[in-house]
Amino acid sequence: MSVAIYPGSFDPPTLGHVDVIERAARVFERVIVCVGSNVRKDSARLSGEDRASLVEEAVGHIENVEVEVMSGLLIDFARKKGIRVVVKGLRDTRDFGAEREQALLNRTMSPDLETIFVVSDVRYSFVSSSAVREIAFHGGDVCKMVPSGILKDVWRLYGRSE
Ligand code: PNS
To answer: Does 7 contact ligand 1 (Cβ within 6 A)?
Structure first.
């Protein structure tokens, strides 16, 4: 069975993430969305479990997708599961620079782990979790950026409580 991991922080998940997951789920028989932490960025506002719940809600319509929380290195998660393919999404050339670096770091540590890139739909090329957090914080409308099923949760969790 062909299996791939799609890792990310999902803080929160966006329509761009869901687009990439749908594309990966059409190519691989099973996709494991793996909710991790990027210690190079500010620490996530929500726990891994809370972010995983949002992802579960966002991808509930895709049959061959599972969601798990990851702590530690991605290569260790992949090795424990016996998975050799990582899928990452690319919105633009800036993403490519950062993702290329991560792919090469992961390959240096684990030569058997292959990273495959999926180009996300152009409609979401400007959508990022950080933009969603900022807009939600200031009370703006993010309904065209996050899946409708998690919109209320995004408001509740990322909006400014006054
Ligand atoms: O959504 P992001 O910030 O692009 O996700 C990054 C993530 C979580 C996939 C990446 O930081 C990651 O794999 N973290 C786990 C720790 C690890 O393996 N780091 C080395 C890869 S450079």
So the answer is: yes
